[in-house]
Design a protein that fits this description.
16 helices; 6-stranded antiparallel beta sheet; EAL_dom; EAL domain-containing protein; 2 domains; TIM Barrel; 8-stranded mixed β-barrel; Cyclic-di-GMP_PDE-like; Sensor-like_sf; Beta-Lactamase; alpha/beta
């Protein structure tokens, strides 16, 4: 039954919230301002493990006629910081009470907590610790999600996240990549998991460049010591983008919709075998051109290096190579990474030249030692090396670079060739 709340609420403790919960069959419900609240869970899958590793808890509200109320409208009901804090804690209490009864003794429960609620509560408040103790749910099975948005008190947020970590919970940043998200918060809070906002995935679905950015963000987050979860996966193509992007976990309607049938969710497998097999097939045929590039251009490089060894200049030696429609330029580098003579720009390279980047065109005596392709060629001469696509500094276009070291009169040199990554 519904219970009224006090007009003024200090810090809502466990004893105050307990009467607001009722057992309804196999699950628990809560009451807030005439609405009935229920727990819905959405599975989170590990791509590598090919199985569920956690569930995000979501609140579902219903009016007295059992009609659904949007979560947005529910969270607009509190008229004070105290009521906002109460609703936040009531939801978490309900979720933990329900999850404690689910026959799953292994996986994580992801709980949302708003920055407003975090910064309103006292760091010394023992509510959450008491809640875990009362329900018997181990803290290491809880992931506290902090929604990615500005907060009036960054220090308070940092202290509260540290409190959850001391309890033994994992922490996560939610909606990273949208709005006010940035790496500053990653560095300040050191979360265990970062949830990428679905807008990153939407853009990656529509734009290849955005897909490369997504992959780069995942790589940076991994280097920061965070596991990465991509939410909002709704199609098979998006699932394949997630796999290719290197994320650790996925969540979304493509795999499973949120459900209040909590016991039924633990028997909701996803068919990762087919997805991974399709990814492997695509990767071998389409996404990994390394072997094809090396096989195709090796004869060109051998011919050019042979001519250079017999005294030909760059134009004479590399003319056939430069005439290939995808090649933008060829250049020669010494064993210190410093370019020898001017770059041989192909007709293709000249057509793609952008006058806005003219200050970058001349590369005489440029030092390329920082480039991985140069160091690889110096370390393994006689082998042809190829990079992944990257932004070429000489013209701000995407390219891949082929490089091969060889000896000329006892000195090690490297012949390099840039190929347009997206030739037209």
């Amino acid at each position: 039954m519904s219970r009224s709340l006090p007009d003024k609420l200090a810090v809502p403790e466990l004893d105050l919230l307990s009467p607001l919960l009722n057992q309804d069959g196999d699950s628990w419900t809560a009451h807030f301002q005439g609405l009935t609240l229920r727990t819905a869970l959405q599975p989170i899958y590990s791509i590598s493990h090919k199985r569920i590793v956690g569930y995000e808890a979501l609140i579902r509200a219903f009016d007295p006629d059992n009609s659904a109320v949007l979560p947005l409208h529910l969270f607009q009901l509190p008229s004070s910081d105290a009521e906002n804090l109460l609703l936040d804690r009531l939801c978490r209490y309900l979720h933990i009470r329900n999850y404690s009864d689910v026959q799953d003794q292994l996986n994580w429960l992801f709980l949302n907590v708003s920055p407003q609620a975090v910064t309103s509560g006292s760091r010394a408040d023992s509510f959450f610790g008491q809640l875990l103790k009362k329900t018997g749910l181990p803290p290491h099975r809880i992931v506290m999600e902090i929604v990615e948005q500005p907060t009036d008190d960054a220090e308070k947020l940092r202290e509260t996240v540290a409190y959850y970590k001391r309890l033994g919970c994992l922490t996560a940043i939610d909606d990273f990549g949208a709005g006010h998200s940035n790496f500053e918060r990653i560095w300040n809070l050191s979360p265990d998991i970062v949830k990428l906002d679905r807008t990153l995935l939407t853009r990656a679905t529509e734009d290849h460049k955005a897909r490369q950015i997504l992959n780069g963000i995942v790589s940076l987050l991994h280097q920061s010591g965070c596991l990465v979860l991509l939410e909002g996966v709704e199609t098979r193509e998006q699932a394949l983008i997630a796999i290719d992007g290197g994320v650790d976990f996925v969540q979304g309607y493509y795999f499973q919709t949120p459900s209040t049938d909590l016991e039924g969710l633990i028997h909701a497998p996803a068919n990762f075998e087919d997805l991974l097999q399709e990814y492997k097939s695509r990767n071998q045929v389409t996404f990994d051109p390394t072997r094809q590039l090396i096989d195709f251009f090796s004869p060109y490089f051998r011919a050019a290096i042979d001519k250079l060894g017999h005294g030909a200049n760059m134009h004479q030696a590399c003319l056939e190579l430069a005439n290939h429609g995808a090649v933008s330029r060829c250049y020669l580098v010494d064993d210190q990474g410093v370019q020898i003579a001017d770059t041989l720009v192909s007709d293709t390279g000249a057509r793609h030249s952008d006058p806005r980047f003219k200050p970058l065109e001349s590369t005489s005596s440029a030092d390329w030692f920082r480039q991985q392709y140069l160091r690889q060629a110096l370390a393994q001469p006689e082998n042809l090396h190829v990079t992944s696509p990257y932004l070429c500094v000489t013209g701000a276009y995407m390219c891949v670079t082929l490089s091969q070291g060889y000896y000329h009169e006892g000195e090690l040199r490297v012949l390099c060739c840039d190929i347009l990554a997206n030739p037209t």
